[in-house]
Amino acid sequence: VKESLPNEKTIKVVFVLGGPGSGKGTQCAKIVEHFGFTHLSAGDLLRAEQKSGSENGTMIQNMIKEGNIVPSEVTVKLLQRAMLESNNDKFLIDGFPRNEENRAAFERVTRITPEFILFFDCAEKEMERRLLNRNQGREDDNIETIRKRFNVFMESSLPVVEYYGKEGKVQKIDAGKPADEVFDTVKILFSPAHG
Ligand code: UP5
Ligand code: MG
Questions:
Q1: Low-confidence ranges of the chain (pLDDT < 50)
Q2: Fold of the domain built from segment(s) 8-182
Q3: Residue 177 annotated as binding?
Q4: Looking at the chain, which terminus has fewer C-beta neighbours within 10 angstroms, N or C?
Q5: How many angstroms does the Cα of residue 56 sit away from the middle of ligand 2?
Q6: Binding positions for ATP (predicted)?
Q7: Does the C-beta of 114 come closer than 6 Å to ligand 1?
């Protein structure tokens, strides 16, 4: 493990945001395949931390079960460690920042500002259908928790998207279409000719 991240100016971060089930993970996997980014899902890192038996495990499990947002201190540390451990300088940060506290803490601690925000826009009914069909044993894929996740997304996460919208950094994608069609739009943003 390196002692610190390379000069933050050389690090490229894209935040991948969107409601629960909007397809963040699915699209990130495709971006990784085509454009050489490292995919860091904050939710996956938290679930791994929980399973590793860390002292925060029970707290993380309870927060996820209730659809609530884990304190930034925990999540930023996991993201920072994952960035240090990778040998890459290009990261997709998926499902983070989820609220203003997350956003401010990440910038303060890492001094990294995102290149842009990929925002997957999808109707709630469609997201609900996808989550209920996923069947990967996630403790938060039940209708009660899904409703809580939608509420937290609307109340806490959408304002972060709006914040970056005011900075002109949001690339909004219609994520209600089949995954390959969504990626047709996404890949344009990562192609060298773009911008
Ligand atoms: N699918 C995907 N794309 C499709 C398409 N275009 N058409 C049809 N089906 C499509 O996709 C979900 C399902 O839909 C899959 O079965 C897929 O095949 C299908 P996926 O790509 O997994 O969507 P994604 O947006 O990644 O959904 P996910 O459930 O992971 O989103 P969440 O934001 O809810 O989950 P996350 O893991 O990010 O967070 C979980 C919890 O962790 C949070 O609720 C919170 O409690 C906690 N958390 C924090 O506290 N802090 C953080 O920073 C991050 C998480
Ligand atoms: Mg995901």
A1: none
A2: Rossmann fold (3.40.50)
A3: yes
A4: N
A5: 21
A6: 21-26, 134, 177
A7: no
What local confidence, expressed as pLDDT, does residue 2 receive?
A: 55
**Domain boundary assignment for the chain:** 8-182
Mutation test residue for ligand 1: of 13, 15, 24, the one with most atoms within 8 Å of CB: 24
Nearest to 67 by CA among 26, 98, 107, 102: 98
Structure tokens belonging to residue 182: 């969504």
Report residue 136: phi and psi, to 5°: -110, 20
Distances (CA, A) of 61 to 48, 50, 85, 186: 11, 7, 24, 32
Residues, Cβ < 5 Å to ion ligand 2: 24-25
The vertex-46 CA angle with 91 and 98, nearest 5°, equals 65
Instruction: Kindly calculate the radius of gyration of the chain based on its CA atoms and give it in whole angstroms.
Output: 16
Side chain identity, residue 72: S
Is 111 annotated among the ligand-binding residues?
no
